[in-house]
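quick one, 183 residues, struct below
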Amino acid sequence: MRITLIAGSNQKAATSTRLTEYIQHLVQSLGHQATLIDLNKTPVPFYSPDNAHGGHEALENLKRAMHEADGIVLATPEYHSGISGVLKNALDHLGQDHFNNKAVLSVSSAGGAVAVSSLTQLQTIVRNLHGINCPEWISIGGDQRKSFQTGVAYSDIHPDVDKRVRRVVNSFLDLTTVLKVRQ
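---
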């Protein structure tokens, strides 16, 4: 299967991006293709209904990866109980043809204990784009974020956090498989 992951932070050392990289690693270790779009490294232009930004390389790559995807992972830091502006901007460039009947896993990292508000917003956006929300999501916060700081090896991720991430990723891949078979 082909999985597209969007890391929706504009911070170089974002724990949400590092978590997304770990999910990419897990997906690839299970034999699937995984394309990571890091919006910090490859930003897309500000969305405007008056300008389609045709030919913008990062935007064209994003749209192509989303069209080719069998499943999608959307990751964001939680800012003021919401998703990041760069992720919202990227999603505004996309439409139902990118999400229709595809499994979507929502992932968030918060400075506090959990990131429920941003995950709820992501699920609302996915629903409006006709994607299929994975019934589970991944929220890391507080001390859990230490496992995804720069320089921490995957082998040093806290065992409880690692177990939860692996379980949710497997559940997401199972849903993706079921939906791919139905298409």
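Residues 44 and 90 are 7 Å apart (CA to CA).
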